[in-house]
């Protein structure tokens, strides 16, 4: 195991000290605190602005689901990348992920579309998933009325919990998805992977916090094994996939196991592992800029093969 970059180690110590202090004071976690935490970290560490030629705020066709569309080269017909943000099914939004969405559009030269799917605990499983399904099914109809040129080819990307949603969509609708990008994805709601024990605390995302997220998401005794993309049936025409994992991440084994399943099935797939990174490192870009740049290059190369 490689050492973390010094900048990340220093910040992580202060982050863990703050968590320990909150626990000593008996301050329980709340959805509001979790949302504020992700928003604050992203705002603090993803600071350089990437200008995109055209940005549209609208709704998914026929629904009230907000979406934001980033077209990096309006003079060209570009393929589409539906990006589903992470946040434990509880946090994140179009606004929080705006700087990351801009980077994806710029580097991939795809029309990136993000959606504000419904979040738990106010909207438990499967409401957020339903919104993402609608986003995929109505994507072309959403773009048609707008003054932008596009190719009717849709790829999916998702980080963390967004990876779970993206993988589920790819399994259920493989004919609608060209390629799949999973960024440190959360794919197992049953806690079956060893890395959840080996890296259970001290690395931003902690196993106990994941359990809390999932308990807010699944409120009616749903079968979590059946809901987990890691155990879902992989269609023979599963889209080509790339997985990005991090070495100091408690859910890293979920991505690795999914990659192994794809390899066995014969699906075109690649795996990029950053052994010195933590979960959510794209939200910490100013601390680990080289790793983030390498990640965006990897995604671009995968989506735009020479």
From TrEMBL:
The active site is at 160. The keyword Hydrolase applies. Residues 81-282 form the Alpha/beta hydrolase fold-3 domain. Pfam families: Abhydrolase_3. PROSITE patterns: LIPASE_GDXG_SER (PS01174). GO terms for molecular function: hydrolase activity. Keywords: Hydrolase. SUPFAM superfamilies: alpha/beta-Hydrolases. Belongs to the 'GDXG' lipolytic enzyme family. PANTHER family: AB HYDROLASE SUPERFAMILY PROTEIN C4A8.06C (PTHR48081), ALPHA_BETA HYDROLASE FOLD-3 DOMAIN-CONTAINING PROTEIN-RELATED (PTHR48081:SF8). This is Alpha/beta hydrolase fold-3 domain-containing protein. It comes from Photobacterium gaetbulicola Gung47. The lineage of its organism: Bacteria, Pseudomonadati, Pseudomonadota, Gammaproteobacteria, Vibrionales.
